[in-house]
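Entry 14. Ran structure prediction on the chain below.
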Amino acid sequence: MEQRHLIVVDEQPQSSRLKGIAENLHDDGIELIYLEINPKDYVLRQEDGDVSFDKQAFTQALREVPFFPHLDVLATDYNLIEGQLKGIDVISIFSELKPYYSKKIVIYSAQIENVISDILAHEDETFEEQVHRLKLLTNFDIEYLKSEGEFGVKLKSLIAHEPTMSIDNQLIENMMAVNNSDVLCAIAPYDNMPLNEVANLMNSKDPSSTQLKKELTDHLMALITKFKNYE
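Output, structure tokens:
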């Protein structure tokens, strides 16, 4: 049975919905492994009684999800903690942990029609902060769903669908999932580099990234090529 891995960030429990989606996927031959994260579990109460979102604790909770390296879909409600945290902020935090993520991200809201304008309408932000938000929207494969009606059906469809990934993205994802500094690349001259460092280099804009891709391509060609009638 195939497996899919899902993280849902919401201040309201979604257990019943997720259980139904998991049961439907199971009937289709897919085992859904999921975890709900409530951001309100990561707030600090100040001396004056006000609360503030603990970004560091929330980030650590994401990082420690057992299946985080194999995540297929991240889904987040848009309106989370008033004045503290919105769905776009969750994606920003997520991007710090998985900058090369190429699978699905879902933003959902009862007022999904207002989400894009809300993301962009921040007059108190600097130009650099606005550019950062725009990059988040363009760098990731984001779906926007209305959290009513056929939400469960649409989310199930996104989870079940195997995304189309380039060889570059698939290789980077696989190398980044090996989070162990003792696992090294076997291809010279990168044979002393941990795989996650090779993935970082491969995805960089550095000219050496092009050379790395050439080396990997040559190695792959040697592995997949044979001559007819030659033993």
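Strands lie at 2-9, 30-37, 43-45, 51-53, 73-77, 79-81, 85-86, 104-109, 141-146. Will compare against last week's run tomorrow.
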